[in-house]
Amino acid sequence: MKFTTIVKAAALAAGVLCTTAQAADQTYIATTAIVEHPALDSVRAGIKDSLMENGYTEDNLKFTFESAQGSPATAVQIARKMVGDEPDLIVAIATPSAQAAVTASENIPVIFSVVTDPLGAKLVSNIEKPGGNVTGLSDMLPLAQQLELLQEIMPNLKTLGVPYNPGEPNAVSSVEALKVIAKEKGIKIIEAPAPKSSDVAFASQKLIGKADAIYCPIDNTIISALEAVVKTGIDGQIPVFAADTDSVARGAIAALGFNYYDLGKQTGELVLRVLNGENAGDIPVKFAEGTNLAINPKMAARMGIEIPASVTARATQVIE
Predict the structure, then answer these.
(1) CA-CA distance, 254 to 266, in Å (whole number)?
(2) What's the first-to-final CA gap in the chain, in angstroms?
């Protein structure tokens, strides 16, 4: 063997040893989400920033992410692969990915995030003491306050169209809860099922002439195709509202909801507790804190309404 070859081989071996040692010192967090869109991406950013603010660096933290691209079957495949990779902890964002991770993992801790109804989704059987290796953050929405906002902007609101994916458990839970609260407020809910992203445009168009406004719940299928709903709102002169504030910058008129980056930070607090030695199953499920009010006056005008000054005055975010 030539000398230069020996040197290269030695360097390569040293590099492998160094990489192996570095990998051994790294904390490995595997994250997954059912789909990518701004709200869920903000959650992931918040989780990572929370870790970085608490002593983790690019050198001692391996932070990976895989999207299921909207497919529950793919979410199952990703979860199984992650378990095989043996990370220190799995963070699963949104209900389908959380269900897949909890089913796949027997020993690796799972922290779920932005799951509306963790009991209904059968992720845990007890909010205060989840048991097993699972806990997480619920983003149960302030539905009553959201409807009051819609009524403040549209005092004559009587019918509200709701496109949603009937195959997404968190969306079904939200719509069922919304119907109960809406009835108390004299509002009729008109459901518009959209099982796939490609169905969203047609489902929202069917609401023209039937509903006074459209409300997009926390539904990954609908939010991933929000622009199609917004186009319907402009073309049909039917105001579009959303449950999440990130959707306002994409064309919804207004939303009273959470800052999803902050929800990521709150999820990060749970991750840190597990990394610091607590058993996930002993940590109560956390309910998201804080609400923001985002408005989009220009889009309101394009959809034929004006946002009252009383709403504008207390908005935390105004999209120009």
Answers:
(1) 24
(2) 68
pLDDT at 16 over 80: no
pLDDT one-digit tens code per residue, 71-126? 999 999 999 999 999 999 999 999 999 999 999 999 999 999 999 889 988 999 99
Angle at 126 between CA 244 and CA 34, to 5 degrees: 40
For residue 289, what pLDDT is reported? 77
Query: What angle is formed at CA 259 by the lines to CA 253 and CA 263, rounded to 5 degrees?
Result: 145
CA distance 280 to 45: 21
Bridge partner residues of 63 (DSSP): 29
Name residues whose C-beta falls within 8 Å of residue 271's C-beta, 6 or more positions apart in sequence.
29, 47, 50, 51, 89, 91, 111
- Give the burial string for 262-297 (b: 16+ CB within 10 Å, else e): bbbbbbbebbbbbbeeeebbebebbebeebbbbbbb
CA distance 26 to 222: 37
Cα 69–chain centre separation: 13
pTM beyond 0.90: the answer is no
**Mind listing the pLDDT tens digit for each residue in 147-168?**
999 999 999 999 999 999 999 8
Helices and strands (H and E) in the chain: how many: 12, 13
Nearest to 285 by CA among 126, 172, 177: 126
Tokens 């660096």 correspond to: 57
Tell me how far apart the alpha carbons of residues 294 and 296 are, in angstroms, rounded to a whole number.
7
Rounded Cα gap, residues 99 and 310, in angstroms: 41
| Strand partners for 81 | none
CA distance 316 to 69: 31
